[in-house]
UniProtKB/TrEMBL annotation:
It holds the Pfam family Aldedh. It comes from Streptomyces parvus. This is Aldehyde dehydrogenase. InterPro entries: Ald_DH/histidinol_DH, Ald_DH_C, Ald_DH_CS_CYS, Ald_DH_CS_GLU, Ald_DH_N, Aldehyde_DH_dom, Aldehyde_DH_NAD(P). Belongs to the aldehyde dehydrogenase family. Keywords: NAD, Oxidoreductase. GO terms for molecular function: aldehyde dehydrogenase (NAD+) activity. One of its GO terms (biological process) is aldehyde metabolic process. Residues 10-444 form the Aldehyde dehydrogenase domain. The active site is at E217, C251. One of its GO terms (cellular component) is cytoplasm.
Length: 469
């Protein structure tokens, strides 16, 4: 075990090296950015099978899901960035008010410097390398800290990065809390953190010491509204897919479903059919259903089932870290039901982050909106209805990182849209142009020619009339 002072000097050396390279200007030219994005792309495509194997070992992620949600989505982000980078990076003309003319202004994007990327375990490739694409596109150097809870993926990335970025423009620090703590003591120019709100607060506090800006991609309880007029089987299949992909360990997974009491039996049946259709009658034996990341999370999730009415699934196996796709009818007892710190049961108090889906009976869409607004702003809100009026009702009367109608998760794959939370679900956003913008400083550069010297009008001695800008 390295001592704290060893960790501290290693963290210092890593960041100093990244800063030295950034200060040399080597990462700034557009051609250098494109080269690094291509290197990132090659790192993924040349080693696809190793990435798949690591994801299988860490999370039992099948190759189809690994391709779709980790490798494919990251490649799509890199390709989108390569396609648009030239346009994003071009200086643009800035407006100058008549009172300052003659003058010319431009907005010149410049990189920030050294960016720290702290990633969680649930999508250990995507959530580390997708932000990295934006960091490199903007001309920065990067320090990556993969999650220690997905050791195979972390080790693979630590082994590959020096091969694909031999100049040190990207470096990897492996480890957990002690390593991250020492990294956070260093001065970065931006930190992008994906993880829990609790650690997000630690990151933001550490960043404040250096006035380092942060992007925080956090979590929370993302609700679903399942309307009486929603198409039962199609909607249930989409909810099931969004919920149980990666065994529910997705920050934007539907956390709970609200629907009217009369609709519950039909929804439960439709979810049962959808689960069997997607993962077979025994998901434990299929190749496509994931496992819980570790025993701690497994025990927490099984504990959440206590005192609930399990209507689908519920079986689990600790040795395998397997929990079946599970639906419970939430014990609320409250009218209207509470979701948040005041809720009657932990399944409605905590972010579930696993394959347990509570159904919460509510009287109406308006009451569902009241439940959503009763607590932290969620990362995503999913609405299943065939009524445009109801869609508008949710859009206009709630606040969340994103709203998706008639589907779940898919907005994360829309590279042109900003991805991020609001309030407790995070701050800042990334993906595509929004990543590039997050990791650049848009610097106004203004030239006011010395002649004609109209600035004299703004200088003393002032006349009685003064000057109005
Ligand atoms: P986490 O907050 O425990 O860990 C995230 C990172 O922080 C890891 O790299 C970890 O090593 C580091 N870390 C943990 N404890 C630390 C400490 N005390 N000091 C410094 N660093 C520390 O999160 P997690 O369990 O890996 O992921 C689950 C959470 O992440 C959920 O809340 C989920 O909603 C959220 N999440 C959000 C998004 C998003 O895009 N918004 C995506 C995935 C996950």
């Amino acid at each position: 075990m390295p001592t704290t002072s060893e960790l501290s000097s290693r963290a210092h050396a890593t960041v100093s090296e990244a800063r030295r390279l950034f200060d040399s200007g080597a990462t700034r030219p557009l051609a250098a950015r494109v080269r690094r994005l291509r290197a990132l792309r090659a790192m993924l495509t040349d080693n696809e099978h190793d990435f798949e194997a690591a994801l299988w070992s860490d999370l039992h992620k099948g190759s189809g899901e690994a391709q779709l949600t980790e490798i494919g989505v990251t490649l799509a982000e890199i390709d989108h960035t390569l396609r648009h980078l030239r346009r994003w990076a071009r200086p643009r003309r800035g407006p100058v008010p008549a009172s300052l003319r003659p003058a010319r202004a431009r907005l010149v994007p410049e990189p920030l410097g050294v960016v720290l990327v702290l990633a969680p375990w649930n999508y250990p490739v995507q959530l580390l390398l997708d932000p990295l694409a934006g960091v490199l596109a903007a001309g920065n150097t990067a320090v990556l800290k993969p999650s220690e809870l997905t050791p195979a993926t972390s080790a693979l990335i630590a082994r590959l990065v020096p091969r694909y970025f031999p100049d040190g423009s990207v470096s990897v620090v492996e480890g957990g809390v002690p390593e991250t703590t020492e990294l956070l003591a260093q001065r970065f120019d931006h930190i992008v953190f994906t993880g829990s709100g609790a650690v997000g607060r630690i990151v933001m506090r550490a960043a404040a010491e250096h006035l380092t800006p942060v992007t925080l991609e956090l979590g929370g309880k993302s609700p679903v509204w399942f309307d009486d007029d929603a198409q039962l089987h199609r909607a249930a299949r989409r909810i099931a897919w969004a919920k149980y992909t990666n065994a529910g360990q997705t920050c934007i997974a539907p956390d709970y479903v609200m629907t009217t009491p009369d609709r519950i039996p039909a929804l439960v049946e439709a979810l049962k059919v959808a689960i069997a259709d997607l993962w077979g009658s025994d998901p434990a034996t299929g190749p496509d259903y994931g496992r819980i990341v570790n025993e701690r999370q497994f025990d927490r999730l099984v504990g959440l089932l206590d005192g609930t009415d399990v209507v689908v699934g519920g079986d689990h196996d600790r040795a395998e870290r397997y929990i079946a796709p599970t639906v419970v009818v939430a014990p609320s007892g409250d009218e209207p039901p509470a979701v948040g710190p005041e809720a009657a049961h932990p399944v409605l108090r905590e972010e579930i982050f696993g394959p347990v889906l509570p159904i919460v009976p509510v009287a109406s869409a308006e009451q569902a909106i009241g439940v959503i607004n009763g607590w932290d702003k969620p990362l995503a809100l999913y609405v299943f209805t065939s009524s445009a009026r109801t869609r508008r009702l949710f859009e206009q009367n709630t606040s969340s990182g994103a709203v998706v109608h008639d589907a779940g998760l898919v907005h994360a794959a829309a590279t042109g849209l900003p991805f991020g939370g609001v309030g407790a679900s995070g701050m800042g956003a990334y993906h595509g142009a929004y990543s590039w913008r997050t990791f650049s400083h848009l610097k106004p550069v203004l030239r006011k020619p010395l002649a004609p010297d109209t600035l004299r009008l703004a200088q003393p001695p002032f006349t009685d009339r003064g000057l109005r800008l």
